[in-house]
Amino acid sequence: MKTFFSLSISSILFFLFLCFTTTSIAQNVGISNSGTYNPYDGAILDLDNSGGLLLPRLTTTERDALDATFTPSSGANGMMIYNIDSSRYEMWINSGGWQWKDILTTDDLTTDYILNQTALQPTSNFNISGAGVIGTTLSIGNGITVGAVGAPGNILMSLDDSWIGRGAASTDPRIAFNTVSEAINISPIGSAAISVSKPSVSHTALTVTNTAGASGVGIKLSGVRNLSTGEVGYIDFENNDGGLANLARVDVRNESTDNSDGSFHISLRSTNALTERLVLDNAGNLVIDGKFTSNGIKETSDGRFKKNITSISGALSTVLNLEGVTYNWRTEEFPERSFGDRMEYGVIAQQIEKIVPELVDTDEKGYKSVQYSHMVPLLIEAIKEQQLIINSQSQEIGVLKASVDAISEHIKTAEK
């Protein structure tokens, strides 16, 4: 039969005094409910397995009243109680100020919530099995570790089979959302930081939406480059069925060494290579390599934008010196250009430049182009000059005709 003793505080203190202050009696103390017990050498006090240890059991009010009975200092650091109200063990520690902190238990990791959350979390919202840990466990500073470093592991959200983690290979994506209609992979390894795919062509793979309405929304391409000409950011359109060929590229380039001029470029695949088809420079000039089709073209021509307006003189003589020709493009020598094979009508820029140099532009490679639309005012004035000549000649012809008619009548009268 077990015998229970009820000792006064003074008796307990006297007992502890004998145990801990008289080193000649014992180096450490072992307490057993079943007779002689040899304590562990490294422990000051060792309780055997015949019973448990009951800490002071206080309500929150009693605990708070206890705070006033001692000075919050290192001397009280680590003191523990059992809070009856919260049904939790608590420890007095200095963590951003002296305070009572809950002691994390195994049950905390298997129930519905995690400490320091602002609200109760739904069941299974957070589940790391096996070797998963939360915290900074390595020198590289992992916040969440699932499994061994470099080994497969993930945080799985079972609702739609999406997960955060990695597979066996180092190139496996870190974040994936895998459902019937959508998939997204995010990985810092490889040629792309983010890859977005859709198994169905009837769906948009990526949508960026701003719900605020007034602030706008965009996608930013940012990179660090030297202050020299070249592409700064680009978007590739790739057909990954077979050859993995880039069908098109949209890029923005730095056109000056002081990083002050940018240009917009569109390149399309032609003859098994990306060929530049459209360039928009920082001055707003648009160059298209190919035919331009439109229901109409408008050019800025408001007189309020213009000065030094002067009438064109000698337009007819200028036009008479121009030469219209037919020609075929040299497609064999310039396969990268979108030249056609049929016969064309036009002019030669070098010939026009000798007569009206204002109508000719020369690009950075030395190739020349003609502003055909700006030839229209010259043709208008040439037609007007020609019309004056025609009108003058018509008047002279009218006078001559009247003279001829008068002579004819005189001859008829004389014959009678």
Give a structural overview.
By secondary structure, this protein is an alpha+beta fold. It is built from 6 helices and 22 strands. The chain has helices at 9-21, 60-67, 106-110, 315-321, 349-355, 376-415, and strands at 29-31, 45-47, 57-58, 79-83, 88-94, 98-102, 133-134, 144-145, 153-157, 162-166, 175-178, 183-186, 194-197, 230-239, 245-254, 262-270, 273-280, 286-288, 325-327, 344-346, 360-362, 368-370. Strands 9-10-11-12-13 form a 5-stranded antiparallel beta sheet, with no helix packed on it. It is rod-shaped and about 175 Å long. It starts with 8 loop residues before the first helix and ends with a helix.
Key phrases:
single chain; alpha+beta; five-stranded antiparallel β-sheet; 6 helices; 25% strand
List the helices and strands and how they pair.
Elements: H1 9-21, E1 29-31, E2 45-47, E3 57-58, H2 60-67, E4 79-83, E5 88-94, E6 98-102, H3 106-110, E7 133-134, E8 144-145, E9 153-157, E10 162-166, E11 175-178, E12 183-186, E13 194-197, E14 230-239, E15 245-254, E16 262-270, E17 273-280, E18 286-288, H4 315-321, E19 325-327, E20 344-346, H5 349-355, E21 360-362, E22 368-370, H6 376-415
Parallel strand pairs: 1-2, 3-4
Antiparallel strand pairs: 4-5, 5-6, 7-8, 9-10, 10-11, 11-12, 12-13, 14-15, 15-16, 16-17, 17-18, 19-20, 21-22
Helix pairs in contact: 4-6
Please provide a brief summary of the model.
The protein has 416 residues and is α+β, with helices and mostly antiparallel strands. The protein is 19% helix and 25% strand.
